[in-house]
Amino acid sequence: MMTAGQYHLSFLPCDYPRENAVYPACSKEQIEAQFRAYFDRPWAALTFNGRGALDAVLRSLKLERDDEVFVTTTFDYPNVSSCVTSTIFNHCKPARLLSEKSKAIVVIHEFGVPHKGTPQLRELADQRGIPLIEDCAHTIDSRRDDWQVGYFGDFVIVSFSKVFPVPGGGMLLGKAVPCELTDRELQSAIPLLPAAAAALADWPALAHRRRAVFRAYVTAGLPALFEADENVTPWFYPLQTPYWEDIMAAAAQQGIDCGRWHGTDIVVLPCHQYLCGADVDRIAAMVTGVFAARA
């Protein structure tokens, strides 16, 4: 149970107030230009969130109900986020296998770790004449070998709420498509642009802090699913454990966001740039307390 003076520890950067923060004004056109430069792409369009960006791409493909979109993730767990599958279901069928019905490939850089097969998926997409869509919702700067996420895709999708201190907004980059977004759809994103733009400008320092939080969990004795070296900027701290139910119960009691990862034995813990050392210590103590009780 939370004690006096403690506060809820959230997954989302936007839930951590930055008192007296003042950001320069930023327009839709300015942040689109900022993202074009960041990803070195000729075209970018603001969307109301990451799902809106994926929906815009799928609408542009004029898919039939019997068509499929092949979805592949870094760690290839059986289930995929409903944010992705429900968006695809509005147009056609999501699939975990490539087939003759595949009309697009979505590669998800899961937990911020680049999908190692992305270069080969680029080749497959070219051979089949279908687009490769890189879902960079979990990371915008992780690298593998000589490439960075967002390099290979015909389209790149960004979700602001997972990386910036804002509750919504997204970006679609790559080939120009008719986004057909109304002013009403974008109204919720426009007020968020100054904070998002400031965070993107300061992203190297913020990404460094994310990696430091991840390493602090490791130092505290929480088993790591992967190594977050200087090439990986993580989203969540994924913890694979048979005690996931106990950890989720303890987290709920202590006011800590915690979730089960799509039907696996993995629980995910907050891991973002606004967690302080005391926050990490509190989360780690909750987990190690469960481990000790089950020893």
Could you characterize what this model shows?
By secondary structure, this protein is an alpha/beta fold. It has two domains: 28-201, Aspartate Aminotransferase, domain 2 (3-Layer(aba) Sandwich), CATH 3.40.640.10; 203-294, Aspartate Aminotransferase, domain 1. It contains ten helices and twelve strands. It has helices at residues 28-39, 50-60, 82-89, 118-128, 160-163, 183-186, 193-201, 203-219, 244-253, 277-294, and strands at residues 44-47, 68-73, 93-95, 102-108, 132-135, 143-144, 147-148, 155-159, 170-174, 237-240, 259-260, 266-269. The strands form three sheets. A seven-stranded mixed beta sheet has the order 1-9-8-5-4-2-3, with helices on both faces. The longest helix is centred in the C-terminal third of the chain and has 18 residues, at 277-294. The two termini are 22 Å apart.
